[in-house]
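Suppose you are handed a protein chain with no further information: no name, no annotation, nothing but its sequence. What can you learn? This example shows the usual starting point.
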Amino acid sequence: MRGDIALFLGLVAVIGGGIVVAVIFLLGGNGGGNNACDNALPPLGRSDISQAGFQAEDAGLAKVIQAASAGNLPAAEDAFFGDVHGFTHNVDPPLRPIDEEMARDLCESVIHIEEELAIDRRVDVIASDAARIRALLRDAAEALGYARPGD
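A reasonable first move is to predict its three-dimensional structure. Written in structure tokens, the prediction is:
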């Protein structure tokens, strides 16, 4: 009987702890309701934030979309992680003062594809996320005064 009670209390503690961790994660870690995208994504290396840079990342995201659409997860990962990934982080700071809503949307989309590539690994979702990021980067190019890539 005591063993059953101890087991029950242990399960309650584990489940309760999991709920607390989930709430903290969803609230941005400080309980204040802040979102991870309230601030710019941290920089990753260096990126060429220019017309040529936007064109290169547009082509890179096309490779991610193509690979994921073909069900080739390793190729999608290879195409995303590197210059494309760095660019998605590095374009956030110059974009944010011009269009904060777009920068937030880009940030959330980047975090989602990062999680998808690392955890769930669903190629259809990765292709969709990459297409969303590509569209946002096309809009960002225009917002920053460059010609829209891909057009």
